[in-house]
Specification:
The chain has 405 residues and is α/β, with parallel strands linked by helices. The protein has helices at residues 4-12, 21-29, 49-62, 76-79, 94-108, 123-126, 131-138, 143-147, 150-157, 164-180, 192-204, 241-249, 256-263, 268-279, 285-300, 303-318, 331-337, 341-347, 354-362, and strands at residues 17-19, 35-40, 67-72, 117-121, 184-188, 211-215, 328-330, 366-369, 376-377, 392-395, 399-404. Helix content is 47%, strand content 12%. The structure holds one RNA strand of 85 nucleotides.
Length: 405
RNA sequence: GGAGGGGUGGGUGAGUGGUUAAAGCCACCAGACUGUAAAUCUGGCGUCCGGAAGGACUUCGCAGGUUCGAAUCCUGCCCCCUCCA
């Protein structure tokens, strides 16, 4: 039996909703080893902090002895999750799916315990599906039921397209629950409909309906939209310590508490205290954010890496100094790139086109650091003259190169 | 089967013969400020040549055509959406 405090930690922290809450608690207290379903779309192989919220929950339950079943959605990936007006995706080849799955799993197991996880592929059951199986599946539901779903309802009323395959998506995902006999399925709140169809289908097919664990949507680094790769407001679990730390530092202050809550193990009381301190302006939120960035970076890398990332952040970003490690570029290569500085910046990989180089120079974003002498700002796209070896170039805030022979 | 609408730069979306490398907004980049927070201000945002002024090239679904000149007109093709049945 878990203590009430433990149950609370499992069912409340970083959780948006559980359907059905008390059934789930009963299940949790039953002592049975639960099968925890998690699906993954192999057309999107990268994991970011938004996904981590749910993965952490899986991990907590694994630590209580439960079993994770990860489903590689090699069939549903072909349909595309009907969130928004996503155009039907091109079919992935088998090789692409395998490669994506490998990449995903490597990231997945940074949070989830591999020992208590099982990986299955949808094709294990859908590969054998016949048309009559599909018809049998569709026969269980009505259009009206599916139009209940927010996204469909909205698009329908706005006369925007809904592909028929999109209606199939929840069905296939639901059948996954039947195939693996899941006890609990995990997903974001935007997945509620899909998870509920699974629950319903299990009931129809004589299984015990799964519980649905809905995770809150994590707001991305822009502070406005849901974290997602396509919006480029994400922090990937595969990123370098420096990038991870830096991206977290760019979060708006108002997200600090939620990130602590969803993505760290810092005790709730302590988070509440931070929240109070910030409200009372008793702390500089930046310091809390540094702690947050440190915690998360250390989790995905390690303590020393996080400390290093912090040092680099303080040096490069806060003090505007040069980093220790800069890409090295050979002066010989630059000399032939000429004739002007803008050409050289392209050759050094600091800008993507001559025009961009000119813009940077015109805007005063290019600075030279000759060894032992004061830095100077390039204000005109003049004739390139090779600086002395050891000179560093900075373009904007965080693009650097060190020039050597 | 019938009727209608539409495909423009990363997104949205104006533009229906030259003043359009293509408004506005968003995103993004740089500068100032600063805590890579918030807020604000300024500039930039196709490529290449030129110190600059300026020039050249490529871009508005695809292929042709008309014209001194086309994102805009014509022809064919491809694709998408809605409504009625």
């Amino acid at each position: 039996m878990l203590s009430p405090a433990e149950v609370d930690r499992i069912t409340r922290r970083g959780v948006s909703n559980i359907i059905v809450q008390n059934e789930f608690i009963k299940l949790l207290q039953s002592g049975r080893k639960l099968r925890l379903k998690m699906g993954f779309d192999p057309s999107r192989p990268d994991i970011h902090l938004g996904h981590v919220v749910g993965l952490r929950k899986l991990r907590q339950l694994q630590d209580l002895g439960h079993q994770v079943v990860l489903i590689v959605g090699d069939w549903t990936a072909q349909i595309g999750d009907p969130s928004g007006q996503s155009v039907t995706r091109p079919m992935l080849t088998h090789e692409e799916v395998i490669a994506n799955a490998e990449s995903y799993l490597r990231q997945f197991f940074k949070v989830v315990d591999q020992e208590r996880a099982q990986v299955v592929w949808q094709s294990e059951w859908f590969g054998k599906f016949s048309l009559s199986d599909v018809i049998g599946l569709t026969g269980r539901f009505t259009v009206a039921q599916f139009l209940e779903r927010d996204d469909f309802a909205k698009r329908f009323s706005e006369h925007r397209p809904i592909a028929i395959t999109e209606l199939l998506y929840p069905l296939l995902q639901a059948y996954d629950s039947v195939a693996i006999e899941s006890d609990v399925e995990f997903g974001g709140t935007d997945q509620m409909f899909n998870l509920l169809v699974g629950r319903e289908l299990q009931g129809i097919m004589g299984q015990c309906p799964q519980q649905c664990f809905l995770m809150p949507i994590l707001v991305g680094t822009d502070g406005i939209q849901k974290m997602s790769k396509s919006l480029n407001n994400y922090v990937g679990v595969d990123e370098s310590p420096e990038d991870m730390y830096g991206k977290i530092m760019s979060l708006p202050d108002r997200l600090i508490v939620a990130y602590f809550e969803y993505l760290t193990d810092i005790p709730a009381e302590e988070i509440a205290e931070m929240s109070r301190d910030m409200a009372a302006e008793a702390v500089n939120p930046m310091n809390l954010k540094k702690r947050l960035a440190g915690e998360i970076t250390a989790f995905f890398h390690d303590g020393p890496a996080a400390a290093g990332a912090r040092e680099r952040f303080e040096q490069v970003v806060q003090r505007r100094a040069l980093p220790e490690d800069m890409p090295v570029v050979s002066l010989a290569a630059l000399a032939v790139a000429g004739p002007r500085w803008s050409n050289v910046l392209v050759a050094a990989g600091l800008v993507s086109s001559v025009n961009e180089g000119k813009r940077m120079i015109n805007q005063g974003a290019v600075e030279l650091f000759p060894p032992g002498s004061p830095s100077l700002r390039l204000v005109e796209d003049a004739q390139y003259e090779a600086p002395e070896p050891g000179t560093a170039i900075k373009v904007g805030r965080r693009r650097f190169a060190s020039l050597h022979l």
